[in-house]
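During the reporting period the student researcher (J.K.) took over the structure-prediction task from the postdoctoral fellow and processed the backlog of single-chain submissions. One of the processed entries is reproduced below for the supervisory committee.
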Amino acid sequence: MKKILSLFCMGAVSMMHGQSSLSGQITDHQNQPIKGATIEVAELHQGTTTNDSGAYTLNQLPSKNIKVSISFLGFTTQQQNISLAIGQNKLNVVMQPSAFQMDEVIVSTAFNKLQSQNVMKVEHASMRSLQQKGSSTLIEGLATIPGVSQISTGTSIGKPVIRGLSGNRVLVYSQGVRIENQQFGEEHGLGLNDSGIESVEVIKGPASLLYGSDALGGVLYFNPEKFAPAHTFKANVSQKYFSNTLGSNTSIGIKTSSDNWKFLARGAYNTHADYQIPGSDRVTNSRYNETDFKSGIGYSNAHVSSVLRYNFNALNLGIPEGGIGFQTTFRNPDYPRQRVANHLLSWNNIVYLNRSKLDIDLGYIDNLRSEFEDSPTASLRMNLKTFNYDLKFHLPKTAHLETILGVQGMAQTNKNSGEEYLIPNAYTFDVGGFGTVSYDWNNHTIQAGLRFDHRKVSTQAQGILGDEGSFAALDKSYQSFNAALGYKTAPIKNLNLRLNLASGFRAPNLAELSSNGVHEGTNRYEIGNADLKTEQNIQADLNLEYGNSHWEFFVNGFYNHLQRYIYLSPTGQTLEANPVFTYVQNDARLYGGEAGLHFHPHPLDWLHFESSFETVRAERLNGQALPLIPAQNWNNTLRGEFNVQRWLSEGYVSLNVSHTFEQNHTGLFETPSADYTLVNLGLGGKLKMGKSLIEIQLNANNLFDKKYIAHLSRLKPDGIPNIGRTFVFGANFSI
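J.K. obtained the following structure tokens:
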């Protein structure tokens, strides 16, 4: 480690010898220059845009092999592997037109390839495209991605579900760091705000090879806002208004960059009153307020790239227990309520070592979660502190082979200071090592990897055994070997076929091992099970996709066999006037998939029709359904795109019709859910005001004020409907 740090420091202060520059021209297929194309070296957080003549220059680059991506709306994204010599280098690129969305460089997988070149199918969505749908929260937008759903508590709390798996089976990454925020609880949301997030990548299926425990069901990987292009200063202010909750969402950001140094900062504030169900009633105490601040500073030269980021998020939210009660538009949460403060500090580095390189990602998270039953004194107060580390060594690359070796892990403490305890004071230590290789030849790619993990969980004894909030001391260790094998081929032009087989695991969390009490808002007494074993699964995925200039389609299928699946089960007893639930294990299986079509008829270049269907079935091996499994969904969008010369660009109008089918394959303590159809409208574009741009959007969600209850709504047992008709107006002012 001392040697690594020494190399890093030497790179950071070294003289600028051995540096390279890259310049050239970007043109279209008719040899016309493209103004505003983006040229980016993602691993260096360095980029620029082309001028009026399509020319660009990137300075302070390493004299090594780098990946350069070139993108522009309406053209196919290209990724070039360039071996830079010392001094000046040239790269001219001819872009090919494309009617579909730009191909994206995927960061969440090991080799950072374009999605079209990736062995593993990863869903990528820009935050801008999700925000254009008029969602009020981050998770609400994510739930529009095929294969992703949410367990919601009103409009304030949403927990991601990927192909039927949820809780901490879905690992969340932000700023290159795994998020640890007591995510095991039903009332515990992500603790992330969409302000200052560039895009999200969704890995659907076990990703333990790259991420270790808790990536058994999948990964949500949030890419932070990019720095400004070199030698530019940018600022923007955005404001949204939500009619249903009388809500307001404000965000202000600035960023600037030189060849070597980069800086950005962004602040956001959200406030919402109780949400209104179809008709006129509001759901009492579903209100919330959120403050978010993000900042980052980066430095790069020919030897090192280093980025330090910080995110503070404070959430003050009500827990709706009484349903439809006292009607008010107050914004300060009543009791019971939660207050969550989350600090995330990340340090992401790349150090170039001769023909190889080293990725060093370090993270620290301080999560303070307080819950208040009926007074300003916290009944539960849990402070989770986590240090994460992730080191990847990229061996010298050959013409066809890439190899990565890595070590990851964390050290974590949980400390209680409230009147009541739900989980004990505890310490968790986690370490894992892995290796993965990718081999390309002709139109084929094969990728394989192997990993070993060890996790140790120690808890402190508390109270008198048998009483609420009492715990016996635990000292548990868990180990697991996991592997992954993937194959991608293009048997004919425009057709990609992917086949992946991977195993994953998850060690039991603190709540499952040692809970002993009533969690505010769940209306049940939960008892942990110290004898729980590690969950282990193996999943097969098949992806087929085809695309040409007029239409594309995809089909994804999966089968997931899961050993020792952990879930809550009622005991039939009551404690503290609440039904008692305990954690049990059984083998289970989940299977299903997604299919979609994007049609772009010629010569109607402005018209797009997208349709997708998703389904998942989850059950124990005896056929009994697992709880909290999303219903089937069929989603259709008709979108028109247009420009009005000189004053409006990237204009769009969209009609979305989403049908959710009935869910009658339910778990032990669930009831069936009826089907429903929602209709949503959207309109927006960029207005040119001199040298400034104003991006506007108008949305009408649940246009016909449909009364429905989503199957994964935690308010479903109380018969409380989801949100009614909502009008959203947004404006983004860029300088």
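The committee noted the following: The chain is about 5% helix and 55% strand.
J.K. will present the remaining backlog at the next meeting.
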